[in-house]
Specification:
single chain, about 575 residues, alpha/beta, ABC transporter transmembrane region fold, 2 domains, six-stranded mixed β-sheet, four-stranded antiparallel β-sheet, 16 helices, elongated
Amino acid sequence: MTTNEMYEKSDSAHLAEFAAPGRHWFRLSGTLRTLETLFTITRWGALAWTAQAVLDRAGVHETWGLVAFAVMGVLAVGADWTAGTLAERGARAVSTGLRQRLTGALLPTAGRISETGPAEAAWAMVDLADDVADFHARTAPLNRSAPLSMIAVLAVTAAVHWPAAIVLVLTTALLPLNMRLAGLFAQHGADRQSAATRHLNAVVLDSFRGMRTLRELGAVGRRGRTLTTAAEQLNKSTMSVLRRAFLSGMVMDVVITFSIAVNATYIGLSLLGYVQVPHAPRLDLFTGLSVLLVCPMYFAPMRARAAAFHQRERAMIGARTIRDIVKDTPAEVARAAAPQLTEPVGVSLTAVRFRYAGADHDTIRADTEFAPGTWTVITGASGSGKSTLLSLIAGLRRPSAGSVTWQTSSVRQAPALGGCAWVGQQTVLLDATVRDNIRLGGPEATEEQIRWAVDAAGLSGVIERLPQRLNTRLGEGGWGVSTGEARRIAIARAFLRGARLWLLDEPTAHLDADSEREVVEALRRATDGCTVIVATHSFTLAAAADTVLAIDDGLLHDASPVNAR
């Protein structure tokens, strides 16, 4: 077995696994599809019976034939509608299950943090989950009903007039080759469309995120042309997929039309007395019309499966992408440790190594202790791994080797997601009030607790200057605050969490000297008695630390003597 075949087999297994939440509904839908076929066969038989009765001038048979035709028609329509409804319900169950798994993998609450980019994450969440669900809604009931439906049609045809059944069997042998060609066409086209979609998603997302910078640089026009080019590439790849689908569908229709034409010609000539197959039963209007009406139903499942080949390739791409995002994520989403640690938290790094996938060397090598209740500053060149080290301590990443441990006088545990406070370089302010932005750190916080957080972060003066104090709306379309003031809002959020371990990633980056001093003072107040680990280039923060460590060529080591705070 080649490597590509092994990957394809793995993708198929994951695609089948993702159908589990809707499998019950798909089985019911497939059963009803089979019943619909039986009802339709009976309906066409009733119509042929009625036509024969009209020819024979048998009025009673005409009436009963029309009644049977109407009843079977209602039952067939009801079975079709119910089967479609059940398949849609199964699709919703599949897409909901996939989005729950993606949410658990993409958000830092699931025992791991995905390295997936935001464009691909949005693509998987919005489009690919539906691609997988729609594929299963279309094919899972068909896989259950198609063999039974085709056998039923073939059996009825053979019972009515066996030479027509032989024609169906002979032409069936041509269809698998066409379906294989349809699959090969679909795979190549779907890969190109997937790449174009991923590229367009990335361009759109980057354009929105960097719109202010693009405007300041006068590059909006150039970016617009890039966006147009990406959209045209997606349009071309989509049209290519449609052309391939049309071509494979046309070949399928030629084979089906040929089979039906052969049977129609044979039946017409037999009824006229020009052709007579030895030992074949005599044809009359009832048998001939029954065969002609039922024969197209024999090919309907194969036509549907051929059309699904194109959908299958999109679903395979979706399954592969989703698998890569959710791999190694626990089935049950792990929540932050409870109860909250109430003592200063010490951190132990024991023979820790971390290497990114595909890298040829370790990004981090660390073996050290962070004492409870101390400030530690980590310095190093940009890209040396400071932020990666903080993410290992927070539990956002797992070390490639070694272990990270949190410990107090009474507890020793692995990092618990959500169990520490994090203040980074970028402070996200929601389109909400100042109070609501601060309350993100503690949704159940009382007004008095919010006031404590404001005082601890040194925000009182800022709040007093805002037009509606804590009720002032911030963010898009609201009131603006400076970068330093936004950082202090982030400090207030972190204070409200009540965590005793604080991880700070360049908390004073891009601030002027006065703003940096104010933020450092706010941090000192807010973190009194807590363990603080800071990744920074700031000499001001380094001077406030008990210990300064440095990362050099991936190795964490002492950088300077201990300073008194």
